[in-house]
Write a structure and sequence with these properties.
Helices cover 40% and strands 6% of the residues. It is mostly helical and 552 residues long. A two-stranded parallel sheet has the order 1-8. Strands 2-3 form a two-stranded antiparallel ribbon. The chain is globular and about 65 Å long.
Length: 552
C-alpha cells in the first residue's frame, strides 16, 4: 500500500454520487441521447470515472470473495481445500465438491464468479462507447481482456459485446481457439497505447501488465484450444520469451529480498516485483478489496486472541503432498526456530506479525505460538495444543476431537494489524498482487523449454536466479513435469507451485502441464469434462448463445 496513491479511490466515490444524483435524469433521457451525446455530457472526466469503476470491478472476484476465483483456481487443484469441521464450512458440500471435482451447474460459486467477471467485462466495454482517449481505450481493453481470459479459463467460452451493441439483444459468445485468438489479438493491438510501466505506480494498466497478460494468453493458447492435449506453437513460445525478456532486461524489477514483503501491509513500498496490483489503503473502506479474507479463511479462531476473536475462520488448508514439494517431509511438530531453507516455505520471524500475534507467514504446521512464545490451544474442552496436522479425513469431513487442527494452513498475505492503530484489519493496506515479476521469469523459462528448439540451459539460468533469491539451492536440471507424479518436487510445475501458491494460477498450470485429471489427495478419480466448469444454469437461461459444456 502506497499512501501517496489514495487519490485513485476518490473518483469512484464521485462516480457513485454522480450515478445516484442523475438517476431521475436518466429516466427521461435514456431513449433520446446517443452515446456520442452522452459522452459529450460526461466529458473527459466522466469517461475516466467509468474507467475507474471498471478497475474497481477487479476487487471482488479476484481478491475480496474467497469463494470466487481463489476457490475455483485453488481448491480445484492440489494447492488447497476446505474441509468441513463439525458444522463449519459445510454449506451443503459446496467447498468439498470443488476439490473432489464433483461439482454441477447448480454450484452457487460458479454463477457468482461468472456474473462478477462479466461485470468487469461489460463495464470495461462500456468505457469504449464514450469517446475515450487512446490511452483510456487501451486500459479498458486490457481490463476487458483480464475478464475474458479468466472466463475462458474457467468456462471455455465468454459472452462478448461491441461498444454500442443493442443491450436488448443477447451478447455473442466466443469459445475455444477463436476466443483465445481474439484476446491475443486485442493485447497485441493495445500494447503500443498502454502507459509506460512504473513499479511505483502499478495500480493501473501499463505496458508490462499488458505484456504479462499476453504471455499468459500465448502460453495457454494451445491448452485453451484443446485442454485434453495442450500444444505449444513455436511462434507463441518465441513471443513469450521476447515479451519476458523485455520485462526482465528493463531493470524495473528484481526479486524482493524477503519473499513475504511482496504480500505485506506495506508491500507497495517494499515489493520490487509488482507489475500490476490492486490498491488498498489501510483504514479506508471505499473500494478496499477485502484482503483480510486471505488470512481469515485459513487461520484458527484463536490465532488472533485477544486482539480480535473473530479474525480466524479455520477453513482453507493445503495437502501434505503440496507442502512436501518444497523438498521437506511434513513434520508432526515444528518449533519457532528460524532454520528453514526456502524462504517461500515460511516459518521465520516476521516483524509486524510475529511480534504482534506470534504468526509466522507461510505454511503453518505443527505447534503455533502467540507473540510471547506461549503455545496456543484450540477451543475444545479440554483444549488441545493448536498444532496443525498434515492429515485430513479422506472424505474431507472432520468429526474427531482434533477437527479444529487438521490440515496445514497457509498465510500468503501477511495480516495488517495497523488499521488506524487497532489490532484488527477490516480495511487492510495490503495491495493485492495481480501480476508479479517472478511469474514473468518462470513463464519465460517455461517458454524457453517449450520452444521448437528448447533452450533448457537458458531456462535453468533463470530458474536458478529465482531459487537463489528465495534461499533454495541451485539445481543442475529441471524437467517440465512428471506426469506420473504431480507432486514431484524436481519439476518446473513444482517450482511454479512453490513460487505462485495461492495466487490464482494453479488450476491453469495443472491443465497446461497435462496433469489436472491425475489423482491427488482427496481426489482419487476424475472426468475429462472437468477440464472446464459448467455454464451456470441461470446464465444459459439468460443468454441463448451460450452452450452448456460437454458432459454437464
Amino acid at each position: 500500500m502506497k499512501q501517496n496513491k489514495k487519490y485513485l479511490l476518490y473518483p469512484l466515490l464521485l462516480f457513485a454520487t454522480f450515478i445516484s444524483n442523475c438517476s431521475k435524469l436518466n429516466e427521461h433521457l435514456e431513449n433520446t441521447l446517443t452515446n456520442e451525446q452522452t459522452a459529450t455530457a460526461l466529458g473527459a472526466s466522466g469517461t475516466q470515472l467509468l474507467l475507474q469503476a471498471a478497475y474497481a470491478d477487479i476487487a471482488n472476484p479476484f481478491f475480496g470473495d474467497v469463494g470466487q476465483v481463489l476457490n475455483l483456481t485453488g481448491n480445484s487443484s492440489d494447492e488447497s481445500l476446505v474441509p468441513t469441521r463439525g458444522g463449519d464450512w459445510d454449506d451443503n458440500g459446496a467447498w468439498r465438491v470443488v476439490h473432489s471435482h464433483t461439482w454441477s451447474a447448480t454450484l452457487a460459486s460458479l454463477l457468482t464468479t461468472f456474473n462478477q467477471l462479466n461485470k468487469l467485462n461489460f463495464d470495461a466495454t462500456n468505457v469504449l462507447a464514450f469517446t475515450p482517449t487512446k490511452t483510456q481505450a487501451a486500459e479498458a481493453r486490457f481490463l476487458r481482456a483480464i475478464a475474458l481470459y479468466q472466463l475462458l479459463d474457467f468456462f471455455g467460452q465468454y459472452p462478448f459485446r461491441n461498444p454500442g451493441d443493442n443491450l436488448l439483444n443477447a451478447p455473442e459468445v466466443k469459445s475455444g481457439a477463436a476466443a483465445i485468438d481474439f484476446i491475443i489479438s486485442e493485447l497485441n493491438a493495445i500494447l503500443p497505447d498502454l502507459p509506460a510501466a512504473n513499479p511505483n505506480m502499478n495500480y493501473t494498466a501499463n505496458i508490462d501488465a499488458g505484456r504479462t497478460l499476453l504471455m499468459r494468453a500465448l502460453l495457454n493458447r494451445g491448452a485453451f484450444s484443446n485442454r485434453a492435449n495442450p500444444t505449444f506453437a513455436d511462434a507463441d513460445m518465441q513471443q513469450v520469451v521476447t515479451l519476458g525478456n523485455a520485462i526482465i532486461t528493463s531493470g524495473r524489477y528484481s526479486f524482493t529480498p524477503n519473499y513475504f514483503d511482496n504480500f505485506s501491509a506495506d508491500n507497495g513500498i517494499k515489493s520490487r516485483e509488482g507489475i500490476f496490483a490492486y490498491l488498498n489503503t489501510a483504514g479506508v473502506t471505499a473500494n478496499n478489496a477485502g484482503g483480510q479474507c486471505r488470512w481469515y479463511s485459513t487461520l484458527h479462531y484463536n490465532m488472533y486472541k485477544p486482539k480480535n476473536p473473530n479474525a480466524g475462520w479455520n477453513g482453507f488448508s493445503t495437502i501434505a503432498e503440496f507442502y512436501n514439494a518444497f523438498g521437506v517431509a511434513a513434520p508432526v511438530t515444528q518449533t519457532p526456530a528460524d532454520t528453514l531453507l526456502d524462504k517461500r516455505l515460511g516459518g521465520r520471524y516476521y516483524v509486524g506479525s510475529t511480534n504482534i500475534s506470534g504468526l509466522r507467514p507461510g505454511f503453518l504446521i505443527g505447534q503455533q505460538y502467540d507473540e510471547t512464545g506461549a503455545p496456543l490451544k484450540d477451543r475444545k474442552v479440554p483444549a488441545n495444543n493448536l498444532a496443525f496436522k498434515p492429515a485430513i479425513s479422506a472424505n474431507m469431513i472432520e468429526t474427531g476431537n482434533d477437527l479444529e487442527i487438521t490440515g496445514i494452513r497457509v498465510i500468503k498475505y501477511v495480516p495488517d494489524y495497523t488499521d488506524n492503530g487497532k489490532y484488527y484489519d477490516a480495511n487492510p493496506g495490503n495491495d493485492m498482487m495481480f501480476f508479479r515479476y517472478a511469474d514473468v521469469v518462470l513463464m519465460t523459462a517455461e517458454a524457453m523449454m517449450r520452444k521448437g528448439t528448447p533452450d533448457n540451459a537458458g531456462a535453468l539460468v533463470l530458474i536458478n536466479q529465482l531459487r537463489t533469491a528465495r534461499g533454495a539451492s541451485t539445481v543442475g536440471s529441471m524437467p517440465l513435469v512428471n506426469t506420473g507424479n504431480v507432486s514431484d518436487p524436481t519439476t518446473l510445475l513444482a517450482e511454479r507451485g512453490r513460487e505462485m501458491y495461492w495466487e490464482n494460477v494453479r488450476r491453469t498450470d495443472l491443465i497446461r502441464f497435462g496433469v489436472f485429471l491425475k489423482p491427488w489427495a482427496y481426489k482419487p478419480t476424475d472426468d475429462p469434462k472437468n477440464l472446464v466448469y459448467p455454464i451456470p444454469q441461470q446464465a444459459l437461461a439468460a443468454n441463448p448463445n451460450l452452450t452448456q459444456n460437454p458432459g454437464y
